[in-house]
Amino acid sequence: MRVVAPLLALAVVCSTLAAVSIGAVHVGPAQVWGIVADRLIPGAAVPSWTPAQAQIVWEFRLPRALLALLVGAGLAVVGAVLQALVRNPLADPFLLGVSSGASLGAVLVLIFGASALGGLPLSVAAFLGALLALMLVYVLAQRSGRITPARLVLAGVALAYLFQAVYSYVLQQAHSGRAAQQVLFWLLGSLGGARWHMLPIPAAVLLAGIAYLLVQHRPLNALSSGEDSAVSLGVSVTALRARLFVLTSLLVGVLVATSGAVAFVGLIVPHAARLLVGADHRRVLLVSALLGALFLQLVDIAARTVAAPQELALSIVTAVFGVPFFLWLLRRRG
Fold first, then answer.
1. What residues contact residue 29 under an 8 Å CB cut-off, 6+ apart?
2. Could you give phi then psi for residue 86, rounded to 5 degrees?
3. CA 325, CA 300: separation in Å to the nearest integer?
4. Which one, of 184, 210, 182, 183, lies nearest residue 293 by Cα?
5. CB contact set of 41 (below 8 Å; sequence gap of 6+)
């Protein structure tokens, strides 16, 4: 952990620098540092860049790079928590239908306006959709009071299709075809609209969420060993699940509201984190956050450059890694 965490943090800094530098207008790493320093402390650097480069870096690329870090870290942490809560290595927000539920709430607001849900803002509508999806999956996956892995995945996939069908119908009924097309692209994951004003809420929710989850690392460790073991150690399983379902729904809702539904981050990254630092959630959560931030940062760079000048949706790129990993994990688990 003492080696892994600093190395991952350094990799995140390097990937952020690369994300801000790479694009149709190239801006060198030294120029990026100079622009950021000059914005934070006017006159701190001798200008070696044009006003256009400064605008591109500060107003567009840097907010996008930081949002990629927040979304990647958040989805990875949520995946790690869900896998512990339901004791299923296949659990993640996308496969369990949580992202689709959040997307439905967001689409209703984007297409019909805030009045469609009683004046709820986008992030709140997405949170309620995510919470509804997670509660339904939890109820449908139970059998004789216990959750079975097969029922969990099947319930999640079925609900995901249901929510996707509903918001697809909503998009078909939209008066503006162009607006519907833009929302559909956003639903597959996009950070193209990232701006500075979008960062404070997801950053605050993510930091508070990770801090709370780190406090709960011992109950999570106990729950990972089984409900009976957790109860014998004094863990109130029902209350713990209720609290963490609300927290993970809040995280997914806020993140989906800013980036759309990005697939497979919450599935792949927690397993990689466990391979690096073991099963202790105090370590897994921190390493998952760093790995998730790095992973989505690199995915976003690929999405912007592979088919340039056209931009790919993030879920298209994550699926290239996620689908083979999912099939391998499914086969490995029998």
1. 17, 21
2. -105, 0
3. 19
4. 210
5. none
First to last CA, the chain: 31
Closest of 76, 104, 72 to residue 92, by C-alpha: 76
Phi and psi dihedrals of 25, rounded to 5? Answer: -105, 110
> CA quadruple 24, 294, 203, 110: dihedral positive or negative?
positive
Q: How many helices (H) and strands (E) does the chain have?
A: 15, 2
Q: Look up the pTM and report it.
A: 0.91
Token readout for 306 is 């592979």
* Separation of alpha carbons 219 and 240, rounded Å: 8
Return the DSSP state at 308.
Answer: T
**Tell me, what's the pLDDT at 13?**
95
Distance CA 224, CA 50 (A): 54
Neighbours of 232 (CB within 10 A): 11
For tokens 């014998």, name the residue: 232
DSSP code per residue over 42-56: TTSS---S-HHHHHI
Could you report the per-residue pLDDT of 142-196, keeping only the tens digit for each? Answer: 777 676 767 877 888 899 999 999 988 888 877 666 767 778 777 888 898 899 9
C-alpha torsion sign, points 186, 190, 193, 194: positive
Q: Which tokens in the block code for residue 155?
A: 């319930």
H/E stretch holding 146 reads strand 146-147
Spatial separation of the C-alpha atoms in residues 168 and 81, rounded to whole Å: 29
Residue 98 in tokens: 């949580």
